[in-house]
Amino acid sequence: MFFSQLIGTSMGCVITPLVFWIFNNAYQLGDLVGAYPAPYALMYRGIALLGVEGFGSLPKHCLRLSIWLFLAAILINLMTQLLEKFETKYRIYRFIPSPMCMAILFYLGGYFAIDMCVGSLLLFIWQRYDKQLAKYFGPAVASGLICGDSLWGIPTSVLALAGVKAPFCLKVGHGAGIQIELKENGSGIANQRLFRSKAIPKGATTLTP
């Protein structure tokens, strides 16, 4: 086991800087509207600013909102525990959302929340079909999906470094609906079934008129 850890650590010392170099050259890391917004970096930056400049560095009403949400999370968890203990007929506690799960969306972004939603839905269907099999193989399948999603970032970075661009790009923007940037075909005509929106920059189209 010691030699396995030694080999794994040695590989990480070589592979990790190379992967970071590829991503750093292919994408703009830390861009809030980019492919890799680096949410943990922003979170630690906020903690550092808070420690140096105090609460005055926070946006307006941010501290008040954080306090209220902190108290709301405590009350929701307390209510869930009480209902689980005393209300056993309808088991309403199952339908109360978890504050921790709701918080994931705010600091990791929508792409991660969508992956979790799809994975949870697949696991729910699997449990309805074969609960015993899902219990034993669910974590393994989830680990494989997570690793596959992470590993796919390497070939996409290599393609981006090579200048390869996708024929279209799907984006979900704030207040602009779902945007699709299309390249013109040989005749110079884009998909006529898509409608242009005033809220979207020139050159992009949207699914909604």
Automatic annotation (TrEMBL):
InterPro entries the record matches: OPT, YSL-like
GO cellular component: membrane
Location(s) in or outside the cell: Membrane
Topology in the lipid bilayer: Multi-pass membrane protein
Superkingdom to which the source organism belongs: Eukaryota
Single GO MF annotation: oligopeptide transmembrane transporter activity
Transmembrane segments: 6-27, 39-59, 65-83, 104-126
Keyword field: Membrane, Transmembrane, Transmembrane helix, Transport
Family: Belongs to the YSL (TC 2.A.67.2) family.
PANTHER family: METAL-NICOTIANAMINE TRANSPORTER YSL7, OLIGOPEPTIDE TRANSPORTER YGL114W-RELATED
UniProt protein name: Uncharacterized protein
